[in-house]
């Protein structure tokens, strides 16, 4: 499973369009086997969703997310887990 967390510095970014990048994690049966940071090439929610789709992300852990972003994440087939705050790791 591939998991993403939007970040601004070391903290979880809200909303998605304000993310400086995403921390990506690859999970193998409950173990993180790989993690890396991908900076955003452009700002905005659409650019964020495009980046998640490009990397084949299965799940997004994020802070607050508005209805437009929530719909876009769902349409991309990404599981959404909102409500996180604080340090991304």
Structural notes for this entry:
It is a single chain. Helices cover 21% and strands 36% of the residues. The chain is of the alpha/beta class and 89 residues long. Strands 1, 2, 3, 4, 5 and 6 form a six-stranded mixed sheet that branches.
Q: How do the strands and helices of this protein lay out in sequence?
A:
Blueprint: E1 2-8, E2 11-12, E3 21-28, E4 31-39, H1 45-54, E5 59-61, H2 67-75, E6 79-81
Parallel strand pairs: 1-5, 5-6
Antiparallel strand pairs: 1-2, 1-3, 3-4
For the structure shown, list the relevant keywords.
89 residues, single chain, alpha/beta, 6-stranded mixed β-sheet
How many strand units?
6
Q: What proportion of the residues form beta strands (DSSP E)?
A: 35-45%
Strand/helix succession: EEEEHEHE
Q: Class by helix and strand content? A: alpha/beta
Distance between the termini: 17 Å
Envelope shape? globular
- Nearest-angstrom radius of gyration? 12 Å
